[in-house]
Amino acid sequence: MKNMKRVLAALAAAAIALGLTACGGGGETSGTGNVEGEYDQVVYAYATFNNIPATEDLAPVQEAINEITREKIGVEVTLMPISIADYTSKVSLSLQGGEKIDVYQSLGNFNSCVASDMCYDISELIDQYGAGAKEVVGDNFLDACRVNGTLYGIPTYKPYALTPMLIYREDIAQELGLDIDSIQSVNDITPLLEQVKSAYPNMTPLAPVQSGTIGLHMCMGDVDWLSDDYYNPVGVLLDNNTTATDLYTSDVFKERAQLARTWHENDLVMKDAATTTTTAAEAMASGNYFGYIAAYSYPEEDTAASLRAQCGNYDIAAKILDDAFLSTGDINAVSWMIASTTDVPEAALAFLDLTYTDEDIINLLIYGIEGRDYVLNEDGTVSYPEGEDSTTVPYTAQLSCGTLGNFFKMYPTEGTNPESLAWEEAQNKEAETSVAMGFTFDSSSLKTQYTAVKNVISQYLPGLLCGSLDPDTELEKFEQALMDAGYQDILDAKQEQLDAWLAQQ
Fold this sequence. Notes:
CATH architecture of the largest domain: 3-Layer(aba) Sandwich
CATH class of the largest domain: Alpha Beta
Structural class: alpha+beta
Number of strands: 17
Mean pLDDT: 89
Strand content: 5-15%
Strand order of the largest sheet: 8-11-7-12
Distance between the termini: 41 Å
Number of domains: 2
């Protein structure tokens, strides 16, 4: 570390100050006494659901951030926005190849990141360089990022309880007289999609939320993924019991796979949903889709309001499909890690801390440059400049809100209800909680099995969840391939660790 040791005392004071301002605005800066030009260099890799900005459009955002970080923590940051479709693979390959990335996010792969030795142990650094973030998140939620007592990350601070919803074109629903109130679960959607298809033969009723899923994995009831992400589940808890279960032999998975197949065969869903790189917002903005299924942490009205600009400014609405359910994976699914390969762990954590405590930093990351990329309205909400939207402004990562730092320091989007924060906090407190809340599976001794099993999952799961594979013929093949790859070893290990953890509670 060329600079951080020299400013250790200053950073300690800054960390305390940041903790005190965690519930306020950006706060006052804490200078580090850096000599101009002598700053630790930190690469911040973050996923964006929006377009990747051109280098010249990203540069002003980066410089505005650095004007803050140079003074506060003696750090210069290089922003590395990566498309959500490519994020996990690109970060993994970059770290393996020796490319400099200092800060990155788990995006549902917390367990895999830890098991792959991609994470720096921040247990001893958090109180010095991440005190503000620790104060904001709180020990209970921070513990979701511990494995065997070791702290490997900091969860994004946001409404954690995710509620599955149908996001849809309200103008079309009203035109066709669709009975939206009749939708009580995902099983009730089919007749409405058929009505849309009949009235608009050239429109595809349902878009994928992202490559490899049309959202049905979010509509399986009370599922604890036991430290895996829902794109690669390996042993789960169903219906809040304490038995590590093979999801793929469960009735609920078979039902969802069959539903996806029905939609696919009847042209109710994008045919190449299993492989497309098109995001839900891009699909909706094209005008060729009626809706998509995803999970959000906000009330229906606010969810819709936050998505309208992203979805082509169509009249967007949202309908809840199931109750929220809260597990450890919901908290650590979007966690921020310091790369194990970093040469500036203290500087990296100091910058990460600012994304939780500094209002200016997080809003620069999300919205870009005021006046150019967004308009800050008199009521404190954000809208796009006149004639612009998320696809035309030079920079925005608005669709990544809730995945970067502290959600509660972000400006709300135009049309959101100011009372929603209370609803979101209530969801975190009142949502049904997994019996295994706080349990984190250690898969480090099963790297070979996990690699083999995830290869099998990537071969079969997208097609089964998007309908391009017939579950009547492919599920049995899928299950056999899983067992041949060592699936049972993982199930047994999860059960053993879970039983030991439960015995200590």
